[in-house]
C-alpha cells in the first residue's frame, strides 16, 4: 500500500534539502492544479515501503492569505496525507512552532523534524527533546538534513506513526489554552455537530477557524446565516474583552503557547544578545555603500569562470565531440549504408548541425546555474533582494520583485509565473513587463557564439555588459511605466534573512540540473523540430525542388523579404533575419539556425567554421548590435504565451 508523507515548514527551514535527501533522483516537478506554483513529488528511495513524498510550499501559517498557504492547507485537509512531517528550524523554534500548532489543531498525524541541530550545538544551546515532545504531544526527532543525519530515523518514525494511526484513528487538540477562547470554541463546535451534522475529527478545527472568521471554511461548510450570527456574538464578546480583533487574539494565544514551550525546552548558553557569524557577514554584504558593488563583483566573477578557461574548455570539448567525432561517424555510417543525399544532408547538416550548434553551450549554462545555486543555497540571494529593494523602490517596485527578475536570468517562463507572490497587482504587472529584459539562459549560446567570434580576449566583459544592458533598459522602462500607465504606491517589503549556510554538493547538483534540464529537453524537442523544419525550408524552393544555393530556397525568400528591416542595425543579410525569426520559437534556435544555414556539421572543425562564417558577415560593432537586439526584441513564444496568460489580456489592464 502506498503511503503519502507531506513535508511542511517555514521558508528557509531546510525543507527542500530534506526532500532532496529523501527522494534523491526520483523527484519530479509539476504545478499544483489551477495555479502556477511548483509542485514537487518523489519517492523515498532508501526504503522498501512505497512512500510518496510531497514537498508543500514554504509557509508561515495555514491562514488562507497567500496562494501557498491555501494550497498547503487544502492538500492536507482534502488529500489527507498519512503523515505530515513538519520541519522546524531548531535555531528559531519559537517562530516555527506557530505553524506546528496549526497542524496539530488540524487533527493530522504530525511528526516534527527538528532541523539544523548542528547550528544549535555550535551556539552551545541545548534542547530538551523529551520535554518538547511531551509539551507538543507529537513525536519530535533531531535531524541535520544537509548531512543526512537522522533522516532515516525520521522516516522510520513517520512510518510507525502512519501504521499506528491506521488502527487507532486520528486525534486532535488545540494549543490555545485561554479559558474564555476555549469555551467559545467548544460552543461553536457543539453547534457545528448539531446544525451541520459534522462529527468528524475536524469539528474542533472547523470551530476554531469559524471563530477566526475564516471565509474559506465558511464557504466549504456552507454556514447558514443563523450560525454566522451566533459565531459573531462570540467574536464580539472576545474582541471586547481583549480589545483586539479576533484574528490577533487567536494568533497571540498561539504565540503565548510557543513562547512558553521555547522557554521551557531550550537552555541557551548565552542569554545576552551578540553578533552571529551571519550578522558579521551582513554588516559587509548589506552595507549601504558596499552592497551593490559587491553584488556586481560576484556576478562578474561568475561570468569570468563561466566564459573563462573552464567555460572555453567545455565548449571546445563538446564541439569536437558533437560536430566532429559524432558528425563524422554518422556521415561515414550513412555513406556506407548508401543513404540518399537528401537524407544524409538532413541528418548531418540539419539535425546534428542544428542541435550541435546549441548543445556545445549547455556546459556553460550548467556552470552558470551551478554558481547561482551556490549564491542561493548559502542564503546570499535573500540579501541581494534586500539590497536591491532600495534601488527597485526608485522604479516604483519593492524588493519582492527582485526574486522573479533574478529567476528571469534562468528562464522567463517560471520568472513570470513567480510574480503571483506579489500582492500588489500593479507591481506584479510591472514586474512581468520588465522580466523579458533579463538575459535568460537561452540567450547565453548567442552571446557565447558571437563573443567567441569577435571578442575572444574580452568575452567576460562583453557578456557582463549585455547583462547590465538588460538591467539598465529594464530600469528605464520601469521608470517610464510607473510614471505613466502603472502609477501607484509601492507595496511594503518584509523578508526574512536566513542564516548563512554551507551548501551541500548534492543539493547544488540537484538545483543545477533542475534549472538546466530545460535546455537539454529543448534540444530533444523544440530545437530538433526546428532544425528539421529549417533544413527543409533551406533545402527546397517554392516549387519543392532541391536547390544548390540556400539563398534560392523558401527560407532564403522569406529572409530576403524581411532582411531590409534589419539593415539599419548592420545585419541586413537574409540568414541573420531568418535566425532572429526562429528565435521567437526559442532563443537557442538562433544559434542552431546559423549552424544549419552555414553548414557547420559538414565541416571538419565544427563550430570553428561557423565562427569564420560569422566573421565574414559581421563586424565587431554589428555583432554586438545583433546580441543587443537578441536581448531586447520579443521574448520566446513560451514566455510570450505565459505573459499573456498571467496578464489575462493583450493590453496592460
Task: Please describe what this structure looks like.
This protein has 653 residues and is α/β, with parallel strands linked by helices. It has 3 domains: 166 residues, Rossmann fold (3-Layer(aba) Sandwich); 89 residues, Helix Hairpins (Orthogonal Bundle), CATH 1.10.287.1770; 343 residues, no CATH class. The protein has 30 helices and 9 strands. A 7-stranded mixed β-sheet has the order 2-3-4-1-5-6-8, sandwiched between helices. The two termini are 50 Å apart. About 1% of the residues have low confidence.
The gist of it:
The chain contains 30 helices and nine strands.
Which secondary structure elements does this structure contain, and how are they paired or packed?
Blueprint: E1 3-9, H1 15-23, E2 28-31, E3 38-43, E4 51-55, H2 67-79, E5 83-89, H3 93-105, E6 110-115, H4 117-123, E7 126-127, H5 129-136, E8 140-142, H6 151-168, H7 179-196, H8 203-212, H9 215-221, H10 225-242, H11 246-265, E9 266-267, H12 277-285, H13 291-307, H14 309-336, H15 341-359, H16 362-378, H17 380-393, H18 402-407, H19 412-417, H20 425-434, H21 444-454, H22 459-483, H23 505-524, H24 526-539, H25 554-566, H26 574-582, H27 589-597, H28 608-617, H29 620-632, H30 637-647
Parallel strand pairs: 1-4, 1-5, 5-6, 6-8
Antiparallel strand pairs: 2-3, 3-4, 7-9
Helix pairs in contact: 3-11, 5-11, 7-8, 7-10, 13-16, 13-22, 14-15, 14-16, 15-24, 15-27, 16-23, 20-22, 21-22, 21-28, 21-29, 23-24, 24-27, 25-26, 26-27
Amino acid at each position: 500500500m502506498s503511503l503519502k508523507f507531506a513535508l511542511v515548514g517555514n521558508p528557509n527551514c531546510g525543507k527542500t534539502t530534506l526532500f532532496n535527501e529523501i527522494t534523491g533522483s526520483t523527484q519530479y516537478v509539476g504545478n499544483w492544479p489551477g495555479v502556477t506554483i511548483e509542485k514537487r513529488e518523489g519517492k523515498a528511495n532508501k526504503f522498501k515501503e512505497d512512500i510518496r513524498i510531497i514537498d508543500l510550499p514554504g509557509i508561515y501559517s495555514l491562514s488562507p492569505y497567500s496562494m501557498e498557504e491555501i494550497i498547503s492547507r487544502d492538500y492536507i485537509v482534502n488529500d489527507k496525507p498519512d503523515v505530515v512531517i513538519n520541519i522546524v528550524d531548531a535555531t528559531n523554534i519559537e517562530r516555527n512552532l506557530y505553524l506546528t500548532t496549526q497542524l496539530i489543531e488540524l487533527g493530522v498525524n504530525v511528526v516534527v523534524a527538528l532541523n539544523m541541530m548542528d547550528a544549535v550545538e555550535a551556539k552551545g544551546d541545548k534542547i530538551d527533546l523529551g520535554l518538547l515532545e511531551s509539551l507538543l504531544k507529537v513525536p519530535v526527532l533531531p535531524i541535520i538534513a544537509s548531512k543526512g543525519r537522522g533522516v532515516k530515523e525520521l522516516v522510520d518514525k513517520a512510518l510507525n506513526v502512519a501504521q499506528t494511526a491506521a488502527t487507532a484513528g486520528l486525534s486532535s487538540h488545540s494549543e490555545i489554552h485561554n479559558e474564555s477562547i476555549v469555551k467559545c470554541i467548544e460552543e461553536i463546535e457543539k453547534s457545528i455537530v448539531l446544525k451541520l451534522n459534522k462529527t468528524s475529527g475536524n469539528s474542533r478545527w472547523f470551530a476554531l477557524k469559524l471563530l477566526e472568521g475564516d471565509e474559506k471554511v465558511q464557504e466549504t461548510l456552507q454556514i447558514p446565516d443563523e450560525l454566522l450570527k451566533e459565531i459573531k456574538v462570540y467574536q464580539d464578546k472576545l474582541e471586547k474583552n481583549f480589545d483586539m480583533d479576533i484574528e490577533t487574539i487567536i494568533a497571540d494565544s498561539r504565540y503565548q503557547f510557543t513562547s512558553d514551550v521555547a522557554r521551557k525546552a531550550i537552555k541557551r548558553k548565552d542569554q545576552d544578545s551578540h553578533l552571529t557569524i551571519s550578522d558579521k557577514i551582513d554588516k559587509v554584504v548589506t552595507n549601504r555603500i558596499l552592497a551593490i558593488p559587491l553584488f556586481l563583483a560576484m556576478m562578474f566573477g561568475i561570468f569570468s569562470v563561466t566564459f573563462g578557461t573552464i567555460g572555453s574548455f567545455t565548449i571546445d570539448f563538446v564541439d569536437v565531440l558533437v560536430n566532429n567525432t559524432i558528425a563524422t561517424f554518422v556521415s561515414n555510417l550513412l555513406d556506407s549504408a548508401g543513404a540518399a543525399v537528401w537524407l544524409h544532408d538532413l541528418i548531418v547538416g540539419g539535425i546534428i548541425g542544428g542541435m550541435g550548434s546549441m548543445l556545445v553551450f549547455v556546459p556553460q549554462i550548467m556552470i552558470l546555474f551551478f554558481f547561482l545555486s551556490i549564491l542561493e543555497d548559502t542564503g546570499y540571494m535573500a540579501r541581494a533582494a534586500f539590497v536591491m529593494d532600495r534601488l527597485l523602490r526608485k522604479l516604483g517596485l519593492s524588493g519582492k520583485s527582485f526574486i522573479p527578475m533574478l529567476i528571469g536570468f534562468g528562464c522567463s517562463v517560471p520568472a513570470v509565473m513567480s510574480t503571483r507572490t506579489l500582492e500588489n497587482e500593479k507591481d506584479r504587472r510591472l514586474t512581468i513587463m520588465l522580466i523579458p529584459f533579463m538575459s535568460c539562459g537561452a540567450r547565453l549560446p548567442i552571446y557565447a557564439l558571437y563573443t567567441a567570434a569577435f571578442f575572444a580576449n574580452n568575452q567576460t566583459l562583453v557578456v557582463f555588459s549585455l547583462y547590465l544592458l538588460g538591467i539598465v533598459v529594464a530600469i528605464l522602462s520601469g521608470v517610464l511605466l510607473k510614471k505613466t500607465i502603472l502609477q501607484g504606491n509601492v507595496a511594503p517589503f518584509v523578508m526574512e534573512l536566513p542564516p548563512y549556510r554551507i551548501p551541500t554538493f548534492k543539493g547544488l547538483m540537484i538545483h543545477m540540473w533542475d534549472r538546466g534540464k530545460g535546455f537539454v529537453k529543448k534540444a530533444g524537442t523544440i530545437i530538433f523540430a526546428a532544425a528539421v523544419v529549417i533544413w527543409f525550408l533551406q533545402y527546397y524552393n517554392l516549387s519543392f525542388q532541391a536547390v544548390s544555393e540556400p539563398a534560392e530556397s523558401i527560407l532564403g525568400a522569406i529572409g530576403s523579404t524581411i532582411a531590409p528591416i534589419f539593415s539599419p542595425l548592420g545585419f541586413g543579410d537574409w540568414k541573420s533575419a531568418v535566425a532572429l525569426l526562429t528565435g521567437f520559437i526559442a532563443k537557442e534556435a538562433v544559434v542552431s539556425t546559423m549552424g544549419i544555414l552555414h553548414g557547420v556539421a559538414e565541416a571538419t572543425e565544427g563550430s570553428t567554421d561557423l565562427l569564420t562564417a560569422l566573421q565574414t558577415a559581421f563586424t565587431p560593432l554589428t555583432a554586438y548590435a545583433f546580441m543587443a537586439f537578441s536581448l531586447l526584441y520579443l521574448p520566446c513564444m513560451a514566455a510570450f504565451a505565459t505573459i499573456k496568460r498571467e496578464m489575462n489580456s493583450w493590453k496592460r489592464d
